Amino acid sequence: MIDTYKKEVYENAINQLSTPLYLYDVAVVEREVRRFREQLPQNVGLCFAMKANPFLTEQYAGLTDRIEVCSFGEFLICEKLEIPKEKLLISGVVKEEGDLPQVLSYCKDASVYTVESLRQFQFFDQWSQKEGVDLHLFLRLTNGSQFGVNPQEIFEMLARIEENPRLHLEGIHYFTGTQKKKVSVLKKELQMLDGFFEEIRKRTGVEIPELEYGPGIGFAYFKDQEVPLYTEAGIRELGEAIGSMKWKGKVTLEMGRALSAACGVYITRISDKKINEGNRYLMVDGGSHQLNYHGQIRGMYFPYIEVLVNDRAQEALRHQEINAKGDPPEEPWTICGSLCTTNDVLVQEYPMEEPRVGDYLVFENTGAYSAMEGMALFLSHELPAVAVIDTEKKNDLQVLRERKSTYFLNSR
User: Cβ neighbours of residue 352 under 8 Å, at least 6 residues apart?
Assistant: First the structure.
């Protein structure tokens, strides 16, 4: 049930921006960062992976120790927002040589940079000497995927860093995947890293200063789904595992989903309803091109959804009926979007009480990736508006993006 204040917030956003729309709550952003801070040891830092939600980069820059930047476009966002250079971790699998000089000339020795390949390392090596600028590097260790480099290549880079006084080892970067549910998986990774750091120390005498570690903490998007690692107890256990490492350098946890998923809602209007061959369908003005839950497969799993009644008179009448007759029976409704494809199914057979055309569905936990991962240009639909609010301070709605037409991007 949506509380009275949130209902007013949602209604105000709908009246101002129409639907579909994304709305992010800064109070939840602050709550989640604080929750991780409180459960982790004081010497463990936090890095926000802005790819999870670039609209909140400014807020997270003020709350976390570092912002991970994975593309030239994300760099331009940070430059426009004037995010402190000291906060930026310039990452990304592909760093185009046409873009890198602009990034390096802007950030210079204030930011830190990940190294994804020997080719990237050679570019940093040559640029630092040519421009006479010191660079601070995280060498990314692979787990066998396309990310990072092999251990032997790490040793080659360490040797070259010793030869070039302009290059400085910031640490090792390591990430293996997302939506992890148990601490036991992370313990194995930390034990492996502990052993690797000891091997580096014995072979080269180099002490690794910092571990930039992406734990890939999962999030419970669906009803009846459990993610022990995301709980306070799970976060504490992760902190204890870090503390038990023989290596005692600094650790920064790089996260996107775990920090931001809970802060957002996606609101879409019920545009039509029908029963075809006994199957109940709700058609909404949004769709799967704008709503993305990690792990959802053709709407098989139930996310958390609230119904926002559009007509206050209808809502009052419904309450009167409930008081007189009791709750109406729930019936299964399949929620479909506005795309001309049978794949545009948001949720299958979701139990609902008498949904009405014109009412709104509020999909919760859409603060991470949902606005960025959908097929935004399919069928040339408009991009939804994006807004933020702070429900703790009860401030005014701040519009970050108005509705945007896309048809001109799909035409000559």
Answer: 282, 307, 330, 331, 332, 333
- Indicate whether 54 pLDDT > 60: yes
Query: Which pLDDT score is estimated for 359?
Result: 96
Task: Evaluate the CA torsion angle 201, 204, 206, 211 in order and state its sign.
Answer: negative
Q: Report strand pairing: 210-214 vs 167-175.
A: parallel
β-pairing verdict for 21-25 and 385-389: parallel
For residue 323, pLDDT beyond 60 = no
Model's pTM, two decimal places? 0.93
Contact 161, 137 (CB under 8 A): yes
Q: Which residue has the tokens 């940079």?
A: 113
Distance separating alpha carbons of residues 341 and 103, to the nearest angstrom: 41
Q: What is the pLDDT of residue 297?
A: 84
> CA-CA distance, 98 to 96, in Å (whole number)?
5
Tokens in use for 262?
A: 């809970």
What are the φ and ψ backbone dihedral angles of 360, each rounded to 5 degrees? -115, 145
Chain centre to alpha carbon of residue 142: 22
Tokens of 58: 């400014």
Q: What is the pLDDT of residues 70-89, one digit of tens each?
A: 999 999 999 999 999 999 99
Q: What is the pLDDT of residue 117?
A: 96
**Residue 34, H or E segment:** helix 26-39
Neighbours of 205 (CB within 10 A): 9
